[in-house]
């Protein structure tokens, strides 16, 4: 795709450096570093984004924890679903913009990128329908003593989820992980692949526009060793979801097991 074919909204987006999103605030990395994002088809620099580090990860996890203990825990299941439906509508409204960002930073053909952008809203609408349908159950028991007893299960959110996504489906990998986390009342720190952070940044801008409370979704862009590693081993992260290479998955598994995090690898 030539630059003159790009939407004005995408050109405006690329004209500004990408920033971290922590606690409802767009900010530079703590040490001010940035890294370049290239178009793999032309090797031209598209823009620069914040290169987060361990201090930024700490701030993002703290913001997520605060939101989990505060405003987000007060949201009803119906309210969570409404926010996800609202976000899905925004993804539909900005579909071509998202598709062009995918093509520019990922290199996939625009037809494939448009398919990915179109399916993102469908994925979110699926998860948006779940919050009001997740329920516990009561269990009949017959204690030997004959004393009355009530047993029941209660499903509760896990807490702070670290979501590390790869470059091959840079938008859909984000919504595949964010959708179930937010639907079930969890909060998130999202770390996109360093090759494809732009569509994740635009997604989080739309999450902010949808009205999610500050700190519910946080974004830390950066290199794997400097952001992914401290996120995986962070003591206040309750669950980690990772999609990527076997080699990196093993490293994340080792880091997660040091404090017995719930983990999911694909």
Automatic annotation (TrEMBL):
GO terms for molecular function: oxidoreductase activity. It comes from the Bacteria. Keywords: Oxidoreductase. SUPFAM superfamilies: ALDH-like. Residues 26-262 form the Aldehyde dehydrogenase domain. The keyword Oxidoreductase applies. Belongs to the aldehyde dehydrogenase family. PANTHER family: ALDEHYDE DEHYDROGENASE-RELATED. This is Aldehyde dehydrogenase family protein. The lineage of its organism: Bacteria, Pseudomonadati, Pseudomonadota, Gammaproteobacteria, Pseudomonadales.
